[in-house]
Amino acid sequence: MENTITYKSPKIDTSKIVLSINDAGKTVESIQRKEKIGHIASTVLTYIIIGFLALLVIFPFYWMIITSLKNNTEIIQDQQTFFPSIVMWTNYVYVFNSFKFTTFLTNTVVVAFFSTLGTLITTILAAYAFARLEFKGRDAVFMIFLMTMMIPGEMMVISNYITVASFGWIGTKQTYTQAYLAMIVPFVVSVFYIYLLRQNFKQIPNELYLAAKVDGKSDWSFLWKVMVPLAAPTLISITILKFMGTWNSYVWPNLVTSNESYRLISNGLRGSAFTDSDTGRTSYGYQMAGTVLVTVPLFLLFVIFRKYIMRGVGRAGIKG
Amino acid sequence: MDNTATQKASVTAVNDFFMERPDYNEGYDEQTNTVIRLCSPKKDKKQKAYKVTGIDDVASKNNWKAWLYLAPALILVVIFLIYPLVNTIFISFLSDYSYVDGTYSGFTFNNFGMILGLTTYNGVYETNFVQYAIPNTFFIVFVTVPLSTLIALLISVALNSIKWFQKFLQTVFFLPYVTNTIAVGMVFSVLFDQSGVINYIFNIDTIWIYGSTQWVAMVPLCIYIVWSSLPFKILIFLSGLQGIDKQYYQAARVDAASRSKILWRVTVPLMSPQILYIIITSFIGAFKEYTAVVGLFNGPGTMNGEHNMYTIVYYIYENLSKQTSFAAAAAVFLFLIILVFTFVQLGVSKKRVYY
């Protein structure tokens, strides 16, 4: 079979073709200069955009602080001011006296301390078992642990509430100890931290373990004398994140405490009325002074432990 | 002699050693520095009678002691994580369940029908869940997740490209992470107050929070959720960006690719594992939104007695002690939604993620 190829030349109006070279008539210097200007312009633009976004991000904090220092008429007047005309330190005095800040703070610190301590103990022991010891069913148990991470915590809250109630820790005659137990015990285990620490323990070379064995050290003393000091950065991250978690916890303490004076800082903040005694309305000045008092300790923690916090939070993403 | 030949020779030598002394089942090969253990040849006759193992294998075999180490965590996980899961699913199928004494009158699907507004309980419909909780939650998910992911991606690309103040700006963008959700929610409700600064700057008189309608109130809520979810995303994206090989960008520059083309054709595909991780986790997070609503509105509605700001999780917590079975049914519903979404996203990602 024969193929016939017909070729039609496209109709091009040659009079309309303009040949050009983009860089014609330019010297190397002028091109470089142009590129440099473009680079500077884009850098400046990036800084302007990112600076603007950074201002948007910190604006709520700025507003919180200046509102906490304004008096009530200035807050609700039509002309909003970006700096308090009269600095009202008395807002803080009022909040310290009426909002039971010290009670909530004590509760939060006690709950945070014991739940962090408990979490550290269970996490270290379990991570050691998963990382170093060998026993039948280790991988199966570890898989089950990991699977529980996928289940939303809200599924657990309902039954945990019932469980804690059946322990007799919830009720109208709740004591301080019972309230603390109810707030601490369900949270002294964290599968995620076990996973995190296990990965860290796994990186510690086997030779150390064998050397310790040769020296006649038991598993127990190897864990506390070698493994724990070597994993200190991860343990610090866990401690801080756990503390921050308690500081921010709202739902569970709200559910299981019957008396306002057992509650934690977030509950106290949201539950307090901050009413102005003159007008009977909510005083934003008092309210914001309260939020400043709740936010500042976290900021201090962040300033001191920035490295550990950011690494601890970031660790979660690197695994993926 | 080359290396493998040496190894073969030495293994044969050790093998001979075992043949001579059948009561020994372990030996040490000095040349290759490995422990050699004789395995039972009965298990698989095709396999050789010896196995070369590393030194790790002789490390501890503490069977029962290991369980002691695991015990505290295991007991707590069983009581507070695994049992509740089973129990919650169980409760969601019980009728007239009372958590105080644990009584119930029978098994039913009515709880699911109830929350979905299909059936009645004592002749009354429960409309809050379908009318408010589901639409609100889905709206929050489909508005805040794409928006915050996109903004976070752009911010981290910009942060990655600058030299001065990078660390400082990174810290600034991380600040919303280290705050109390309730406290800052209260700050946002002051910002969006009718006589607040937002209305002042834009010269409007909108009622955003108290006394507002459902969809208007969604605006400050979504802005707050986006604001508070940025830091985590930026942190993850930045660590991803810093891991990208510079060669890709050099190649793109040689090809004279434009900046936006580099972003969408080079950076985003190379970041796909991080983007997928962020999208899945923030989808799950947005489905469970609750504290932001409490912080902003101090209740489930924009007015006293209203429930128009309900989210699924808010519904669960509100009904926990009043209608435990409804709350359990809502929790199971949430669990299923999250499961389906996660699997769908993992399925999509198989085609779209370039590792």
Layout of secondary structure:
The complex is a heterodimer of chains A (320) and B (355).
Chain A: H1 28-68, H2 72-76, H3 90-98, H4 101-131, H5 138-148, H6 153-166, H7 176-184, H8 191-202, H9 206-214, H10 219-230, H11 232-248, H12 251-256, H13 265-271, H14 284-318
Helix pairs in contact in A: 1-14, 3-14, 4-8, 4-11, 11-14
Chain B: H1 3-20, E1 26-29, E2 34-38, E3 50-53, H2 63-91, E4 94-95, E5 106-107, H3 110-115, H4 128-161, H5 166-174, H6 181-191, H7 197-201, H8 214-241, H9 246-254, H10 259-270, H11 272-287, H12 291-297, H13 312-319, H14 324-352
Antiparallel strand pairs in B: 1-2, 2-3, 4-5
Spatial separation of the terminal alpha carbons of chain B: 41 Å
Q: Which CATH class of one domain in chain A?
A: Mainly Alpha
Fourth-level CATH superfamily of one domain in chain A: MetI-like
User: What gap, in angstroms, lies between the N and C termini of chain A?
Assistant: 60 Å
Low-confidence stretches of chain B: 1-15, 17-24, 39-60
Q: What is the H/E string of chain A?
A: HHHHHHHHHHHHHH
Query: What does the average pLDDT of chain B come to?
Result: 80
Main interface: chain pair and counts = A-B, 95 and 100 residues
Largest sheet features of chain B: 3 strands, antiparallel
How would you describe the overall organization of this protein?
The complex is a heterodimer of chains A (320) and B (355). Chain A is mainly alpha-helical and 320 residues long. Chain A has a domain at 99-272: MetI-like (MetI-like fold). Chain A contains 14 helices and no strands. Chain A has helices spanning 28-68, 72-76, 90-98, 101-131, 138-148, 153-166, 176-184, 191-202, 206-214, 219-230, 232-248, 251-256, 265-271, 284-318. In chain A, helix 4 crosses helix 8 (191-202). Chain A is extended. By secondary structure, chain B is mainly α. Chain B has three domains: 3-58, no CATH class; 63-115, no CATH class; 128-352, MetI-like fold. Helices cover 62% and strands 5% of the residues of chain B. Chain B is built from 14 helices and five strands. Chain B has helices at 3-20, 63-91, 110-115, 128-161, 166-174, 181-191, 197-201, 214-241, 246-254, 259-270, 272-287, 291-297, 312-319, 324-352; strands at residues 26-29, 34-38, 50-53, 94-95, 106-107. In chain B, a hairpin with a 4-residue loop joins strand 1 and strand 2 (34-38). In chain B, helix 4 packs antiparallel against helix 11 (272-287) and helix 4 crosses helix 13 (312-319). Chain B starts with a helix and ends with a helix. At the A-B interface, helix 1, helix 4, helix 5, helix 6 and helix 9 of A face helix 2, helix 4, helix 5, helix 6 and helix 7 of B.
